[in-house]
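Contributing new complexes? Match this layout with magnesium ion.
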Amino acid sequence: MTKSLFLLPGDGIGPEAMGEVRKIIAYMNAEQGVGFETDEGLVGGCAYDAHGAAISEGDMAKAMNADAVLFGAVGGPKWDDVPYEVRPEAGLLRLRKDLELFANLRPAICYPALANASSLKPELVEGLDILIVRELTGGVYFGEPKEIIDLGNGQKRGIDTQVYDTYEIERIASVAFELARTRKNRVCSMEKRNVMKSGVLWNQVVTETHKRAFSDVQLEHMLADAGGMQLVRAPKQFDVIVTDNLFGDMLSDVAAMLTGSLGMLPSASLGAPDAKTGKRKALYEPVHGSAPDIAGKGIANPIAMIASFAMCLRYSFNMVAEAERLEKAIANVLDQGIRTGDIMAEGCRQVGTSEMGNAILKEFSDLSA
Ligand SMILES: NC(=O)c1ccc[n+]([C@@H]2O[C@H](COP(=O)([O-])OP(=O)(O)OC[C@H]3O[C@@H](n4cnc5c(N)ncnc54)[C@H](O)[C@@H]3O)[C@@H](O)[C@H]2O)c1
Ligand SMILES: CC(C)[C@H](C(=O)O)[C@@H](O)C(=O)O
Ligand SMILES: [Mg+2]
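Output block (do not edit by hand):
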C-alpha cells in the first residue's frame, strides 16, 4: 500500500512547525522502513507571491490525489491588502471544500504536566479529554450570498449566509456519535435554535439521527453561547461536542486555552469513506494560525503540528500503535519539564521549536526500540 503525504507548510510558523514533522517522517522511513512518499507544495501567502493564487491548480490536484495532506498555517500581515478571493485563508478553505473534508476533529487534551499552564485552575482541567467535532464545509463559511453591496445612500451592506441542509447535519452528527462510542459515549450538540432557523434544523436532525441509529449514545443539546460558558466553567463535563462551522471555530480556540496553549491543539479534517476502497480524503492541520508575532524566531511550539501528524498516522494509515507512541513521546517530553515559551512554567527548561521537535523524536525513537 502506498503512503503518499502531500506537505503544505504555508506561512509564518507553518514551515517551522512542519520542519519538525519532516524529521519524524524521515526517521520513520529510515529506521522503521515505513515508506512514506512525500511531496511539497505552496499554500497561502507564499502561494500568492509565487502564483497570484492562494493555491495553484497543480497543488490542488496533488492534494486531491495524496493519501493525506499535512497543512501548516497560512496568513499574515504581509497579505492584508490582497484581494479577498486570493487571500491566504482562501487556500485552506478551498482545500476543505474541494476535498469535501466535512468533519473536523479537534481533540483538546490537557497533558498532566500542563495542568498549571492553563488559564483555568488546574483542578478544572487536569485529565481533560474532550473532542470537538466541527462541521467544516458548510454554514456561514460557504453560504451564498456572501458579499458587500452598495446601498447607494452612502451605506454598504455586508452579507454572509448561514445555510445547512439535512444531509450535512446528519453526516456530521453520525461522525460525532460514532466517535463517542469509542470514548465516554456522550455527545453534546451546540447551536442557537433560539435565534437561527439553521439552529432549529440542526437540533431536529441531530435528534432524529440519534433516535434512528445512535440511541445507545447519551445526547444533550446546549445553546452555543451557554456551551462557551460551560467550556470555561466546568470543561470536564463534556466528552464529544458537535457543532457547526463557525461555532466550532470559536469553541475550539476556547478549548485550546484549557490545554495550555493554542500551540497544543491538533486537528484532522476528514471526508467520507470512499464507497469502494473505504479510504477517506484527509488533511491534518493544527488549530493555530501563522502566529506572525513569533514567526521566524524559532520559538513556536511544534506540538500541535506533531500531534496532527499522530492523528494522520491513526486516521489515514491505521498506524494506531505508532500514533499512540508519538502522543506518549509528547507527554514524556512535557513530563521532563521541556517547554516552548507559550507553555513555559517555573522550574522548566525553555527550548525553541527544533529542540522541542528533537526531544519528541528522541522519545519516540526510544519508545519504538
Ligand atoms: N489554519 C490556519 O492556517 C489558520 C488558523 C488560524 C488563523 N490563521 C491565520 O493566522 C494569522 C494570524 O492569526 P491570529 O494571530 O489570530 O492567530 P494565531 O493562531 O496565528 O496566533 C494567536 C496567538 O497564539 C500564539 N500561537 C499560535 N500558535 C502558536 C504556537 N504553535 N506556538 C506558540 N504560540 C502560538 C501566537 O503567537 C499568537 O499570540 C491570520 O492571518 C489568520 O487568518 C490561520
Ligand atoms: C484560517 C481560518 C480560515 C480558519 C477557520 O476559520 O476555519 C482557522 O481559524 C481555523 O480554526 O482553522
Ligand atoms: Mg480558528
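Reviewers usually confirm one structural detail per submission. For this one: The longest strand covers residues 3-10.
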